[in-house]
Write a structure and sequence with these properties.
4-stranded antiparallel β-sheet; 17% strand
């Protein structure tokens, strides 16, 4: 291995087995072909390796390479490194993601105003519709237990909607709403059945 002392680039020559021994040769043309025209001092190292044994590297010395002025090979860029230096010098730059700037939003007061407008229909239903339709609460005394269960179930359902809006997601809310809806439907059926029986008794 011939490693440049200026840039750390290295050129290699592989020994070949001939007549019972290994032989290798390398010249300036071979170095130029591998790393380009890079004159200067090179450190010469003998690398010996085998799959069954630990590799050995032995520094033989330093040589100076001079290239012909007629050579058309390009000089290597300073950022180029061999595989030996890649873990340190060829680390890829960190990728910085550029996110789109958040869109401008209206003030919080606007959001609160629209939230209040969204609740206006519910307030109208709870306050004005019962009086217009002639709804009264006399039936609560006729079947107090079923009335308490039914109206308590309705209030709990409304509370579940509020919790869904503040904390839960749709997958968590649907099972609870389904189970609680069955309870509300059952208690409402019992309440209506009790009121119907009492009306039949009065008619008789």
């Amino acid at each position: 291995m011939l490693k440049s002392k200026s840039l750390g680039l290295a050129a290699y020559a592989i020994g070949k087995f001939k007549s019972g021994s290994y032989a290798l040769s390398i010249n300036a043309a071979a170095v130029e072909k591998q790393i380009g025209k890079l004159p200067g001092e090179y450190e010469v190292t003998l690398l010996i390796g085998d799959p069954s044994a630990k590799g050995i590297d032995y520094v033989l010395g330093t040589v100076e390479l001079r290239f012909s002025a007629a050579s058309t090979a390009l000089e290597p860029a300073a950022v180029v490194r061999t595989a030996f230096f890649q873990p340190i010098n060829n680390v890829k730059p960190e990728i910085h993601h550029i996110f789109r700037a958040p869109e401008k939003r209206p003030p919080a007061v606007v959001s609160y105003v629209f939230a209040g407008l969204a609740f206006l229909p519910l307030i109208a239903v709870l306050l004005y519709v019962p009086t217009i339709a002639g709804v009264n609460f006399k039936g609560l005394t006729a079947a107090p237990l079923y009335s308490l269960l039914f109206h308590g179930g309705l209030c709990s359902m409304l509370l579940l909607y509020v919790v869904f809006w503040l904390r839960l997601n749709l997958a968590q809310t649907l099972p609870l709403a389904g189970i609680w809806g069955l309870f509300v439907a059952g208690s409402g059926y019992l309440l209506l059945s009790s009121l119907s029986k009492q009306r039949l008794k009065k008619d008789q």
